[in-house]
Design goal:
This protein has 116 residues and is an alpha+beta fold. It has four helices and six strands.
Length: 116
Amino acid sequence: MDRYIAKGEVVVNGKIIITVTPPKAYYKSTDVIESYTIRPDPITMYFREPATQEQITDIVEITAPFQAPSVAKFPTGAVDGSHWLSHAKEHCKITPGLRNYHRQFEIFGKILFYLT
């Protein structure tokens, strides 16, 4: 996933299959190895804009060799033909109001830092 997000490289079994425009996304993963066998979502990917069908297809191809043997029960359902992968269509859009709020919070944090 790192190469896909950073460079747009779709790597399957150690070989670059295709290079595409990288998605504006990041992911997080559990640091507890046992979670990969008991959680339906040990890796969560966040997109900064809606994921395209091509991106979902790329992610299915990249993750297929690592799929869990059991069928997970996702609240949003699994991606068609991919029992190990779910996709919720929500994404976090940074609005001007949210950006302004974040800047105010940063300024407030600096003021508190200098006061302590």
